[in-house]
Amino acid sequence: MYLLHYAPDNASLIVRLALEEIGAPYRAALVDRAARAQDAPAYRAVAPTGLIPALETAEGPLFETGAILLWLADRHGVIGPAAGAEGRGAFLAWLFFLSNTLHADLRQLFYPDQYAPPGAAAARAPLMAARVRGHFALIDRAAAAAPALFAPPSALALYACTALRWAQLYPPETRGWLRGAAFPALMELARALDARPATRRAALAEGLGNAPFASPEPCAPPEGAVY
Question: Could you tell me if 179 and 132 are in contact, meaning their C-beta atoms sit under 8 angstroms apart?
Fold first, then answer.
């Protein structure tokens, strides 16, 4: 059984969705962000970066969302093509883009004080927002051109739709800087993902509402805090 270290509506949501789609038995352990549990020595022993998620496996702990997804795809299939299978190269390219580029730039928007000196974050925000909108446009075109590669339960759909959810909700004080309707292929993926039983289970566990990807609402988790 896997042990998923999670916080509501954090990147651990993507891994929870993957585990639900795979059907692998797992247990979820809350990382209490309100208490900065991600900085505690016990959590750092599992995830040295202090970032969420971490996944404990029989082979040892894993961290970094993209790495966990790739490891799960290689062990279980379902969420991505096997090594040597058709589409594997494109799957890897877009998975790394989602993880290393889109997700990394979203973090700079959500936590600007970690990336810019005091007083500089406000001026930098429009530049980062424009970059992120460009990333979503690129993914939208890719999803329209290769729907089978991106269709749920592909890890690409899980990652891209979760990122699209976040961009429409966060940061709360600037909500509305990105509109999902501008990306029709991604919205089609979001509607398909919302209809899946795995999504309904994950949404119930984390308080994400009835249409967490196509019509996202602020998270109302039964336990823990988003920030």
Answer: no
> 0.70 cut: is pTM over it?
yes
Per-residue pLDDT of the chain (227 residues; tens, 9 = 90+): 999 999 999 999 999 999 999 999 999 999 999 999 999 999 999 999 999 999 999 999 999 999 999 999 999 999 999 999 999 999 999 999 999 999 999 999 999 988 988 878 788 889 999 999 999 999 999 999 999 999 999 999 999 999 999 999 999 888 889 999 999 999 999 999 999 999 999 999 999 999 999 999 999 999 998 98
- Name the residue type at position 207: G
Q: Which residues contact 2 (CB under 8 A, 6 or more apart)?
A: 19, 24, 25, 26, 27, 55, 56, 57
Contact (CB, 8 A) for 52 and 5 = yes
Q: What is d(CA 75, CA 55) in angstroms, rounded to the nearest whole number?
A: 14
Tell which CATH architecture fits domain 88-196.
Up-down Bundle (1.20)
What is the greatest pairwise CA distance in the chain?
49
- Single-letter code of the amino acid located at 133: R
